[in-house]
Write a structure and sequence with these properties.
alpha+beta; 5-stranded mixed β-sheet; 3 helices; 25% strand; globular
């Protein structure tokens, strides 16, 4: 099993033809370094595909997931069109995102109340 201590959502859309080396270059140019046991999550412009790049301390692993219908819930951009280059995710947020669920709303969805 590959250990992942911290997950990062890389907000800039990427070409899903990119391999592990090119995605690693994006991480280093954006964040400054790729740390061991950190995972970096990328999506294409339509958010129908995601790639997870993991540095395990010895090398990198790259995994891909594709939705055949719908889109992954991705980060919202502001009116200027910019977003933070990377955002840290919890394991619960990552699990929801990988299933195509609204991961940004996990806190509010965990409580049911009367309006």
């Amino acid at each position: 099993m590959i250990r992942i201590d911290t997950l990062w959502l890389c907000t800039q859309p990427q070409d899903m033809r990119a391999g592990a080396d090119r995605l690693l270059n994006v991480v280093i140019n954006t964040i400054g370094q790729a740390q061991a046991h950190h995972g970096y999550l990328f999506a294409n412009a339509r958010a129908t595909r995601i790639k997870l790049l993991v540095h395990d301390g010895f090398g990198v692993w790259c995994a891909t997931r594709r939705l055949h219908a719908g889109r992954f819930v991705w980060i919202e951009r502001d009116s200027v069109g910019s977003a933070m280059p990377a955002l840290q995710l919890t394991a619960q947020q990552f699990g929801a995102l990988a299933l195509g669920l609204p991961w940004q709303r996990l806190g509010e969805l965990s409580v049911i109340s009367r309006c």
